[in-house]
Specification:
Strand content: 15-25%
Enzyme class: hydrolase
InterPro entries: HAD-like_sf, HAD-SF_hydro_IA, HAD-SF_hydro_IIA, HAD_sf
Pfam families: Hydrolase_6, Hydrolase_like
GO molecular function: phosphatase activity
Largest sheet: 6 strands, parallel
EC number: 3.1.3.21
Number of domains: 3
Number of helices: 11
CATH class of the largest domain: Alpha Beta
Length: 343
């Protein structure tokens, strides 16, 4: 797969049969909806696009997530939600037989998924678990992390549902599962196997369960959502409503680059112009960008300027030219500005 932007003169809903949509930072932030998310997903469904909400959050049951989405105006069934808890339980099955003992450090969703996979959930390292699986839950404390560390140090297989260091909330960014996993890793020296994004497992399982043939990954984080899309071999749409900014996309390494760039989920029902080169400039409709002596120059604004900047920067870097990151502007576009006050 090319590591450059793709173009389409047709809306993405006409090119794909399913969208694998991240939640935090894409559909909502904490309890607050992301602007345009509900209406855009409704229009996408009306255009024939199926949805699977694929989230690295392992703390809640699919039923609970579906209820929240429905309350935000996005009618959702539990089988349209695929969590890192379910992916983590699937990872356990690759090494553990049913009936094995597993110490679960996480929320109700993770406990349910592990039991549904046929394992015995234990509460202490003294129960001699065969594995420890850790996922985020806001109620986790020192005692939970210490129990995990004791079990891992005793030889239990260490599995993490995901390694996201931060978690978007309606107040800003809080420590995510990766930060809490890091405490156990620091105490034991053992790095866990991860089931969540950017590993491709979740995306591939979501596609398998639906029988989709042309999936599109939609996310806000380059290091998880879009890196996972690259790892799975699926095209990815980066929406600028969450963690990673347009500037981050310009500076992204090849394995984290998106295929499409959009201000928000309205990008699902829009065409995506392909930046083209005209002499030294990369042009995208009325915007343009070029790299001169390692410095990025940008003309225009909005998402087209960000697209042109990505094309110019990636082309320069891929040809071996140095790019001075200090010359890359913020490139705030669309909902990235609208949602700035949401926290």
């Amino acid at each position: 797969m090319s590591a450059g932007l793709r173009g389409s003169d047709r809306p993405l809903v006409e090119l794909h049969d399913i969208a694998l949509v991240d939640l935090d930072g894409v559909v909502y932030k904490g309890h607050e909806p992301v602007p345009h998310a509900a209406s855009s997903l409704t229009r996408a469904r009306e255009g024939g696009l199926a949805l699977q909400f694929v989230t690295n959050n392992a703390s809640r049951e699919p039923e609970t997530v579906a209820e929240q989405l429905t309350s935000l105006g996005i009618a959702t069934r539990p089988d349209e939600v695929f969590t890192a808890a379910q992916a983590g339980a699937a990872l356990l099955t690759t090494r553990l037989a049913p009936g094995a003992r597993v110490l679960v450090v996480g929320g109700a969703g993770l406990h349910t998924a592990v039991r549904a996979a046929g394992y015995v959930v234990v509460e202490s390292a003294t129960d001699r678990p065969d594995a420890v699986i850790q996922g985020f839950a806001p109620t986790l404390g020192w005692a939970d992390l210490a129990e995990a560390a004791y079990a891992v140090a005793g030889g239990a297989w260490f599995v993490a549902t995901n390694l996201d260091f931060s978690l978007p909330t309606d107040r800003g960014y809080a420590p995510g599962n990766g930060a809490l996993v890091g405490a156990v890793q620091a105490a034991t020296g053992v790095r866990p196997d991860s089931a969540g994004k950017p590993e491709p497992t979740m995306y591939r399982l979501a596609v398998e369960r639906t029988g989709a043939r042309s999936p599109l990954v939609v996310g806000d984080r380059l290091d998880t959502d879009l890196a996972g899309a690259r790892a799975a071999g699926y095209p990815g749409l980066h929406v600028l409503t969450g963690v990673s900014s347009a500037r981050d996309a310009v500076l992204a390494r090849p394995g984290e680059r998106p295929d499409y760039l959009g201000a928000d989920l309205r990008a699902l029902t829009e065409a995506h112009p392909l930046p083209t080169r005209a002499e030294a400039w990369w042009a995208c409709r009325g915007a343009g960008a070029r790299v001169v002596d390692g410095a990025l120059e940008v003309r225009g604004d909005g998402v087209d300027a960000a697209r042109a900047a990505c094309a110019a920067a990636w082309d320069a870097v891929d040809r071996g030219e140095a790019l001075d990151a200090d010359t890359v502007p913020a490139l705030a576009v669309g909902s990235a500005r609208e949602g700035a006050s949401d926290g």
